Amino acid sequence: MTAGLQTEALTLGYGGKPVIQKLNLSIPKGKVTVFVGSNGCGKSTLLRSLARLLKPREGTVWLDGKDIARQSTKKTARKLAILPQGPTAPEGLTVLQLAKQGRYPHQSWLQQWTEEDERMVRWALDVTQMTPHADRSVDSLSGGQRQRAWIAMTLAQGTDTLLLDEPTTYLDMTHQIEVLDLLFNLNRVEKRTVVMVLHDLNLAARYADHMVAIRQGRVHAQGAPEAILTPALAREVFEVDCRIIPDPLFGTPMLIPYGQGRMLSPKTLMGTGS
């Protein structure tokens, strides 16, 4: 096994029919990987298993060449951090107190709060631009600020790998870009491995180095968005007919779905290009 996060013949489920079946997957180290797929296809289930929150029915999750199930929870939490979908904080918990929770995997009876813990928390708040809000309660923040506060907690763990389940859910467009830019910069500057579940295919294509399309519990396709995002994939995975064109700003694939809508006249279309 090479270093990084991998699965081997991984089967996952909650009681009935398996959600993920015999999955072999390798997450590129130091890259941004995005899981995409229709609702219920197993994206979040897979992410939970990668974080050791869900025990496999069969198969193995490997972290840096070692079976993650044979490592302690605390040891695993020093290597990877997960931000679940829609996390909630106790009422009145401040941003600083939340960020400090990220250092719990590094605490023990013999080693209490250290200067390194303090440094990591302050760095996490700075990089997420949450230092000015450190003394505010989490429940008083806007949606984008709240997501940044939770990301600060995951960053304070000091892990090389970040797992995030739909980090842009319920956010408006401005806050979606704000959060994704933050994660992208963490990858590019800090070389963190970032694994995300996203619903928006166009944003997934813009930010992902590696895209994994999941259909009915199996990997339908994976690779660079430019290589795998096609009208055929959109039809097979999402049951939508579309055109794929280059994003006019970034050059990444942009999906334009067919459907009902207001059609602009040729004269209006010509005017938009001036």
TrEMBL record:
Entry-linked CDD domains: ABC_Iron-Siderophores_B12_Hemin
SMART domains on file: AAA
PROSITE patterns xref list: ABC_TRANSPORTER_1, ABC_TRANSPORTER_2
SUPFAM superfamilies listed in its UniProt record: P-loop containing nucleoside triphosphate hydrolases
InterPro entries tied to this protein: AAA+_ATPase, ABC_transporter-like_ATP-bd, ABC_transporter-like_CS, P-loop_NTPase, Siderophore_ABC-ATPase
Cytoplasm found in the keyword field: no
Organism domain of life: Bacteria
GO MF entries: ATP binding
Main location as per UniProt: membrane
Gene3D superfamilies linked: P-loop containing nucleotide triphosphate hydrolases
Membrane topology: Peripheral membrane protein
Annotated ABC transporter domain residues: 5-241
Keywords attached to this entry: ATP-binding, Cell membrane, Ion transport, Iron, Iron transport, Membrane, Nucleotide-binding, Transport
Localization terms from the record: Cell membrane
Family annotation (Pfam families): ABC_tran
Matching PANTHER family: IRON(3+)-HYDROXAMATE IMPORT ATP-BINDING PROTEIN FHUC
Protein name (Swiss-Prot/TrEMBL): Iron complex transport system ATP-binding protein
Organism whose genome encodes this protein: Desmospora profundinema
